[in-house]
Each structure stands twice: as C-alpha cells, then as structure tokens.
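call fold(seq) -> tokens
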Amino acid sequence: MSLKVQQESFRGGYTGKLLRVNLTSGATQVEPLDQQLARDYVGGRGLFSKILSDEVSPDVDPLSPDNKLIFGTGPLTATAAPTGARWVAVCKSPLTGTIGCANSGGYFGPELKFAGYDALIVEGKAKSPVYLWIKNEQVEIRPAEHVWGKSVHDTEDALKVETDSDAKVACIGPAGENLSRISAIMNDKHRAAGRCGVGAVMGSKNLKAVVARGSLPVRVADGVAFKEAVFAALAKIAAADATASMLPTYGTAGLVNVINAHGLFPTHNFQEGVFDHANDISGEAIREKVLVRNKGCFACSIACGRSSKVSDPEFRGHGEGPEYENSWGLGGTTGVSDLNAVTKANYLCNELGLDPISAGSTIACAMELNQRGLLPKEKLGDLDLTFGSAHGVVEAVKAIAYRQGLGDELAEGSYRFAEKYGHPELSISVKKQELAAYDPRGAKGMGLTYATSNRGACHLKSYTIAPEILGAPEPIDPLTEEGKAQWVKTMQDNVSTVDSTGMCLFITFAMTLEDVVPLLKAATGFDYTLEELVRIGERIWNLERIYNNKADFTRKDDSLPPRLTGEPMPAGAAKGQVVNLEKMLEEWYQLRGWDQEGNPTADKLAELGLAVG
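ret:
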C-alpha cells in the first residue's frame, strides 16, 4: 500500500505517518502507520510500546545503540480534546530494565503532530552530539556540540534562535548527557518525561534535542460529533472539584496536607508517614509565597501548572513548580521544610534534566545510610547529607546531574547506590524505580499498584489514592486489602487506554472511560465501544508484561521494600499498619488470568489477540 493511500485510510486523529531516524547512518525515512495496529492499541503508550516490543529485544542493553527511543503521540494529541497535549517517550529503561514509558504534556507533542508525524522513532547512535530539526517534511540532523553541556533552558533558547522562534523543543540536560539512570527528557523547559531514565537513553545516542515546528492541521473524522463530545467533557471537568477547584487553585501540591493528614506522606525515606512541617511545602504555601500565575498545557482548561519565583538570595530563581511529587521528593522525604530550597531544587531538576521523584528519593536513601553510619565520611566530601539539610538537597541535585563526587554514584538511582553500600533494603523502590509520594501502609491499594507496575514503582498506572483517600469515584477503606486487587486491575487497564489517547490522566478525576469513547470515535472514525476500550487497556498491560517476562522479570519482582511489609507505621492515622502484599497479589494474578508465577496464560493471550510464545 502506498503511503498516500495509507494516510487517506485514516479518517482523522492520526497523521498516518511515522518518522524514522537512524543516527548511526544518518538516514531518515517516513513510513505509513498501520491502521489495524492503531485501532488495536490506540496510540501513545499502547501503540508505541507495541512497536518497541516488536523491534527491540528484551535482552538489549538499554544504553546501547540497539535500544530505540520513540517520541509518540495519541490520536487526541493536538486536537481540541481537553488536555490533548500528551506525548510519550518509549524505550527499554536503563533504570529498571523493563519496558519504559514516560509521559509528558506541554506543547512539544502537539507540535510534532502538527509537523505531520504520529511518532518519531530514533535508532542507533550519532558519532558526536546532534539535534534533530523537524519542520513538516524537512528533517535535518544537525551538529549539537555547541549546546552539549548546556542546561535545558539555555539549550532551548539557543536552538530556537537557529531554527524557529515558535518551534517546540524536547531535550536533555547534563544529567542525560552524563547517562544518569534517573534523568529526564524535558520539553518546553519545564515539562518532563520524567521516569524510567529516558534521558539517559537520549544521551546514549548523542541526541541533545528534537526541535519541531509544524503547520499541518490535525483532522477529526466527524467534526460535529467531536465538538459535542469536547463540550460534554469540558462540562464534566468544570463540575468536578479536583479539576475545577483544587488543581487550578493549589496545583497538584494541594495534596500535601491531605495526604499528610491521612498519615501516608512519606518522611525521612519512608521511616515515617507524617511530616510535622508539611504545611510549609504545601500547595497553600506555594500559592502564598512563590506563585506568580497558573499555567496550562496545550488544550487544557485545568491549568494545574505553577509559574513561580523565589526571591530569597540563597535560592533565587524562577521557573515552574514545585508539583506535589517534587515538594515531597525534594522536601518531605528528605526532611526539608524550606520552601525556597525545595523550589530551587525543583528548578535545578528541570534545568539539569532530572526526575525529581527518583532524585529526591535517592538523596533521602543516602541520608538514611548516612544517618545509620553506613556512608564513609570521605565519600561525602562537601555534601551535607543529613535529613533536613536544605543546602544539602540543592547541592546533591547538582552533583547527581554532573556526576561530581558522590553524585556519580547517586546518579545510578537509589537501589544501585544502596546495594553498593550493602543495604539495598534502604532503597524504597520496586524493580529499581523509586516509589512516589504515598506510603502504601496508609493506602493498601497503592502497595499492589507499586508492586505490579510494569515500568517499576509508579503511582500513576493505578491511582487508588482517588477512591482510598479522595473518595472518588466512591470512598473505600484505605487500610484494608480486601477488594483492592479488583480496583487495581480495573484502574490499570483503564489508565493504559487513557495514556494512549493523548489526554492527561487528570481527566479521570472528572471523567470515566465511557466519556472518552465519543471523543475517540469522533476523532478517529473507529467505531469504538466502552468494552473495546477496556479490552485494549488490558491488551496493553499484558503486552508490557510479556516484554518484561522475556527480560527475566517474574513474580519475585512484584514486590515491595521490606520496610513497607515488615515495619509497622510508627505514628499517625496509619499507625501500626503494614502492607500484606501476597494475598492481594495472588488475587490480582487470578483476575488477570495469569499463572501464579506472574505469566500471562496462553488462553489469556489468545483472548486478547496477542501472539503466544
């Protein structure tokens, strides 16, 4: 089938084109997007995890030229669908060794699609630093030695001067260049494809940046039906408290005091679940002390982003954030209550290209090792790795990005760091990826969520905090394991689909998957049903699991750090609680139709239309 015919077979939602760039040979080519694959996996996380699993062996070294890095959009990216800004970075993760997928918002994803591509697939490795300049059909591999070593902000500014002032940029900072396993890909200066170490994969290819500028409209199959679906979705977003009030008013950090009050705000590397100074780094404090204005992504009416500024001479700076996870990672879990320092550390993560969840958690892990006398004094150098050290956190972020001193070891992430010093149990991670800002001893569904996430510990793939703590869509007891396996499976499957559409996960505070159906149908022309979208989500989850199984991940990896299963919470609303994981895990395997070693059965794979073997 010719590319033109293949493109015309898509009625809307997709451009029908994939851009493939081989940095080793310098070859670029445009390929047609397979229509059946698009229907079966939607886009984003699903579609490009499928392509990665077909093209990249589970045995590959993630930092070798044989790994591939896919910048992918969804069918609702760059449309008027609420929050239709999302794009994904998909690769084999250098942090975990699992299939990796990091999700970001902003404006870069829509611009890549306006340039005419559903995805960019990057292969091989350039001999020296390069960047990609994509302007519609014009694709160039350009030298980037002059921006190698520069911050994310300086890189974006310089490359816009060379290309187009209205271009959108996704790039790495020094952390990605130095192959930190906890580095991010940053876009629009402040948005991050943060998790899984995707920045290190970009750095391993000597790819500093992708610069995109497009002028091609994104069609939808049925404009009238799409407009109706958009207005219906916007009405729901405007009516839900989280999306209409809490997130616009306080940003995601509006959760700090809520989670702390429920006793599951992890403090001092998860030694406790209540931080006495949580209010000092909360959304309320951010709004009062450093907020300049709200900021939203493309096509977003929620505007949860925080444009902020710190005037304190010690930590002066301006940028975006901190978000909830960043307030926690760079504050709560390190015991730091100085909002100016937390905000500055957040700015540095953005400018240097680090995942603030993993960076903060790794610093906290080092602080506990130091607290216990397990770090040699000569290793610390000038770093103050004591809980509560504001300057220590700020300086540690810099050391990690540049691999300076102890930062060279911290750049590997908390598990490898703690393992090197003989105490891997002090790394609060799953599959070597650090947990997020919810202690599962206070919300048991999150324990199963972390343990079973395909990309390593992740709160977003099944956000049971919504029903367990926020009471949405209905309140459930956070301190029981009963019924959590069903909640987790259902949410995992539904989120897999939402992640594939090009919309933000925050729509799920106001909308259900049933509300997504008319948006996808009208945009793509595919006659989707709710049942089909649920099944697609399950297919994506199983696809990822198959890849991980082939990479030698088994039931033993569906685990939690011993602190969470064996050390009762010392105080707060969850006092005395641990996570009884095994019962939930066995039930979850049964619900998934897997064997008790965590392998999808042949019958389940056949049911989902996945290849057996």
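The chain has three domains: 3-213, 257-434, 440-608.
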